[in-house]
Write a structure and sequence with these properties.
mainly alpha; 189 residues; 6 helices; globular
Length: 189
């Protein structure tokens, strides 16, 4: 039962990513901006995310991997809750961002600062959603490659967020600074 649910959610996440890129191509809209960190690390972070998603798909397909430990029911429940939370954050932030969703820094002045809705809970709900999804992948498949991919990807994405925030301060000035004082980088509580 859990495997089927994991498979459905993982496939929905992958389809969402494909849809985002496909829509951008059809509408001749740029979805990739200037990387906020060196290109090598930016691309590496995205590759590591894909590795985590592959491990998640493997769980959904019932493919066993060489794990550090065999997760029990409690770990599976926590992983499933993390996966559902992450997928929800991804979908909500994608819907809210709509055409403002871009991977990297935008050179366009057509984008607007998002501060309401899901962005009132986190300055980076899209990244936070992936944090939960990738964490669930590690809990479902506690393989050393999966865990290292997650840790390195998240470390790099943390620096991406910092650099994006510096860019947003340049773009929006005091408006962004006031927003950053109200809303935390990861989760407002």
């Amino acid at each position: 039962m859990i495997e089927k649910l994991v498979l459905v959610i993982a496939l929905l996440i992958i389809l969402m990513i494909i849809a985002i890129i496909g829509r951008a191509i059809i509408q001749k809209q740029s979805i990739f901006g200037r990387p906020p960190i060196p290109v090598f690390f930016f691309i590496l972070a995205k590759i590591l995310v894909v590795i985590n998603l592959v491990f998640l798909l493997m769980k959904g397909l019932g493919i066993d991997v060489n794990a550090l430990f065999k997760p029990g029911l409690v770990v599976h429940v926590i992983a499933l809750a993390s996966l559902i939370t992450g997928a929800t954050l991804l979908f909500l932030s994608t819907i809210q961002l709509n055409k403002d969703l871009i991977f990297g820094l935008s050179s366009s002045d057509k984008h607007k600062l998002q501060t309401r809705g899901i962005f009132s809970l986190s300055r980076h709900p899209f990244y936070l959603g992936f944090l939960f999804v990738l964490f669930s992948s590690c809990l479902f498949n506690p393989n050393i490659i999966n865990i290292l991919s997650f840790a390195i990807a998240w470390l790099i994405h943390h620096f991406i967020m910092i650099k994006e925030e510096e860019f947003l301060i340049q773009q929006y000035g005091n408006e962004y600074k006031a927003y950053a004082k109200r809303v935390r980088r990861y989760i407002n509580y």
